[in-house]
Write a structure and sequence with these properties.
13 strands, 27% helix, four-stranded antiparallel β-sheet, alpha+beta
């Protein structure tokens, strides 16, 4: 068995699990971890828990050490330098007339790599840009194109509910959201009502979808003809959560039925 924890790293779009390396670590402390890009500074966001090592698809990277005050200062300096690199990159992009929008920049903890995220409507040839950045910063440059949902996660903002975006607060990865989920919940299909700030369907449509599907099983569809004690009529309205529906019965009028 191995003890693992979830660690959030600034440059990553989602939480990743790491082997605690037999260290006594807990949630909310900062650590230095080994990644495919080199050493990174991260924050533990889950409690540690055991897993069967034989069930892991591949060996997990390890926590190298609990972050010291010196590590934290280095991390803050890296963020400051990355912010300067971000501004310089945007300046070069404007100068070269590239059709891309640079979102942010990150140094790995040991400054072995400088990563830029950007959005673009079409494929962009950024080879000249990468070469110029490498000549300025003398390190390996990675330019990574991201989608509109990832952009919203990084930039953050507020949803129609008035809360900070779910993707920025707690979603570690994006799941598929379909228009059928909005239909299941009897929501208006107006894009301004069911789309988030990223322009895609609201992630929260998925949260209660299973509940709505279960509740709808015993209810008739709007437009269906049903027979109740007052007579036969057509269903004109369905309230899924209250488990009621309205039937328009000829010569009687609308009748509300409790399931």
């Amino acid at each position: 068995m191995k003890e693992i924890v979830g660690v959030m790293i600034d440059s990553e779009e989602k939480m990743k699990y790491f082997d605690t390396n037999q260290m006594n670590v807990k949630k909310n402390i900062t650590v230095i971890v080994d990644t495919d890009k080199g050493l990174e500074f991260g924050k533990i966001v889950t409690d540690s828990h055991p897993v069967d090592a034989s069930k892991l698809k591949e060996p997990l990277k390890k926590i190298i050490r609990i972050a010291s005050k010196k590590d934290y200062i280095n991390y803050k300096n890296n963020k400051k330098k990355a912010a300067e690199a971000y501004r310089k990159c945007k300046e070069i992009v404007r100068k070269k007339g590239l059709d891309m929008n640079v979102i942010d920049a990150f140094y790995t903890f040991d400054q072995s790599q400088l990563l830029f995220h950007f959005t673009a409507d079409n494929r962009v040839d950024f080879r000249d840009l990468a070469r110029e950045l490498a000549s300025i910063y003398k390190t390996r440059i990675e330019l990574r194109q991201i989608g509109v949902r990832d952009k919203a996660k990084k930039v953050c903002g507020f949803g129609v509910c008035g809360q900070k975006l779910c993707c920025s607060r707690f979603l570690n990865e994006f799941t598929s959201v379909s228009i059928s989920m909005a239909k299941n919940q009897n929501l208006s299909l107006n894009p301004t009502k069911i789309n988030g700030v990223c322009g895609r369907l609201l992630c929260c449509l998925k949260y209660e979808d299973d509940v709505y599907k279960e509740y709808k099983k015993e209810l008739p569809n709007v437009g269906a003809t049903v027979e109740i004690k007052e007579g036969k009529g057509k269903v004109t309205n369905v309230d899924i959560l209250s488990q009621t529906y309205t039937v328009d019965v000829p010569n009687v009028g609308p009748v509300e039925v409790q399931k």
